[in-house]
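#struct-queue
[09:14] JT: dropping the first one here, sequence first, then the structure tokens:
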Amino acid sequence: MSSKMKIMIAPGRYVQGSGAVKSAGEHVKLLGKKALILGGKRGMGAVKADLEASLKANGIAFVEEAFGGECSRQEIERMKGIAKEQKADVIIGTGGGKTLDTAKAVAYELHLPVAIIPTIAATDAPCSALSVIYTPEGVFESYLVLPQNPNLVVMDTDVVAHAPARLLVSGMGDALATWFEAKSCYVTKAGNMPGGAATEAAMKLARLCYDLLIEYGLEAKIACDAHAVTPALERIVEANTLLSGLGFESGGLAASHAIHNGLTVLEETHHYYHGEKVAFGTLTQLVLEDADREQLQEVLDFCCDVGLPITLGQLGVKEVTAAKLRPVAEAACAPGETIHNTPFKVDADLVLQAILGADALGRAYLGGSAE
């Protein structure tokens, strides 16, 4: 029996609904009086008017700074310098996963609270006590594990519904891994992100995340294509953001995300979203773990229904060979990688075969086409 204490972590406050940004100031004023807002051009544009009006209405001063594009050590240091210079006492991150991870890292290193306002539901980054650090060129470098989750997450589903549906689908790809990775960690009694064992609540939330994806994923994608905030869209935004975030942190990570990290070694994959690569990583994890045919079929059906990749060709990889994929497998199996939470000993040879097998399975499902 595991001697680890059970630990579950979560954001301080989670607010979700259509028009939620209009209420952001009411929640941010509990954290500070002067905010540094960092965001990309599209992300800021989606919330700027409502966010500024809400902050002003609640007496919060603010300065805005454009995000440089990668959550790198250099960008974190640049933003820290601006926050110090402006004497900000709260950091607000708005946009996609890399922007939000940068905001979290800056707040942590300056000992300030952080408010997260996603403009897409493309990853589980908004709720997590984690920043994924990349090189300035976009290659995965390391995980920065933070001592606490964001103080506030404001998820405006109207903003999400007006973002490209591919981003929502990418979030489904990220969320798809949650249950399978948590289950692997539960079996091996591996530690979760805060270093404890999973609570039963975390496992149930991880499973709920998967169940919502399977039941409402396609309906939510169709709604997003129409820029409509429907109950299905609300459920999938919650699955992508809150449930996936709680599930991966308090349940644990395993092969799917490690294979994603390995895939970033291939420059061809850099134009594809995190969740798209995680989806293929999940299929590879299922092959690696010898999942039953019914489970594989359900995942393949889901991915194809919503538009997630099930082949390396769909991730831009041309000329799929063992030699080309060996560095991917080796990176996925690096010391300390989460793939070692798999319920059996894993090495690069085994992972390489699983990647090749998953790609072949995906191509067979599509009728022999890599595309």
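[09:21] JT: and here's the second one, same format:
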Amino acid sequence: MMRWLGMERMRESHAQLLRYLLVGALSNSVGYLVFLLIAWWGGAPKVAMTLVYVTGALTGFVGNRNWTFRDRSGTGRSAFYYFLAHGSGYSLNWLLLYVFVDRFGYPHQVVQLAAMVIVALVLFVELKYLVFREKG
């Protein structure tokens, strides 16, 4: 019985990861294009990232809460911790741009693309185990 419960949890975790990747692929694809457009129009990379990040976090809350993790706890609690987690994600994204673009001179397009992947992986762990964790 315990083995079956462990397999069921693993299966649900894989399903959550797949749903998270689908929500993220859609929102990040659109967000990356907007990032490139803002930068192309002369916007600073960190300003472009900030605008895209805030928009993506706001829209991602609905998809991740309702579909990815199927959270049924109070919206206020999950929203608070969701945006707290995104604060750490934003800080990490900003730091990666600062270090690799401003300090080392790498192209912001490449750094932002890599940062999106790194931040997404960190956020999945935070969302699964801290924000939308199973009760009990």
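[09:30] RK: nice, looked through the second one.
[09:31] RK: The two ends are 18 Å apart (CA to CA).
[09:31] JT: good to know. Residues 2-131 form one domain.
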